[in-house]
Amino acid sequence: MPIRFRYFADRDLLIHIGEGAVSIEEIETLRAERNARGVPRSVSNTLTDMRHSHFDFDLTELRDNESGRPESHYAGTRHAELVADPRDTAVMLMWKKWLPESVEVEVFASPDRAYDWLGVKQEEGDLD
Predict the structure, then answer these.
(1) Is 123 a member of any domain?
(2) Which of 43, 58, 61, 113 has the most neighbouring CB atoms within 10 Å?
(3) How far, CA to CA in Å, does 89 sit from each of 59, 70, 93?
(4) Could you tell me if residue 79 is inside a domain?
């Protein structure tokens, strides 16, 4: 799977790490897998590292998939998104327009800035 995840209850932090091409279907599979593994829906902070991956869908597919979803479909209320590609930055900025108002999203190029924004301590090996 192009996106793997780890949950750290002590820091109330869910980390996603992407590799390669990521489709809408794979994002849905990730959601189902998190639920199956018992990751709480009330996670406060999510950090997604997509610097070594890219989105394999267009904005229409993303809008059709995300628009109107309730907050309970999202892993947390604060999402720090790490991206390297300008296109992926644009995708993340559009994505945040289709989210419930209670879900905050910020896009970063640096892990340090993302952790600072979340207010969570970065630990060695988090993004390995």
Answers:
(1) no
(2) 43
(3) 12, 23, 6
(4) yes
CA–CA gap between residue 25 and residue 41 (Å, rounded): 20
Question: What is the C-alpha to C-alpha distance for residues 20 and 57, in angstroms, rounded to an integer?
Answer: 13
State the CB neighbour count (10 A cutoff) for residue 82.
23
C-alpha pair distances (Å), 61 with each of 27, 58, 66, 88, 95: 12, 5, 9, 14, 11
Token pair 């998939």 in the structure block, residue: 65
pLDDT in tens, 56-113: 998 889 888 887 777 676 766 799 999 999 988 988 888 888 888 888 999 999 999 9
Give 75's DSSP letter.
Answer: S
46 domain-assigned = yes
CATH of residue 12: 3.30.750.24
Collapse the DSSP code of 3 into the 3-class scheme (helix H, G, I; strand E, B; otherwise coil) and give the result. Answer: strand
Residues 55, 62: Cα–Cα separation, whole Å: 10
Indicate the pTM of the whole model: 0.89
Return mean pLDDT, the chain. 90
Residue type, 57: F
State both tokens at 100. Answer: 């419930």
How far is CA 122 from its chain centroid?
Answer: 16
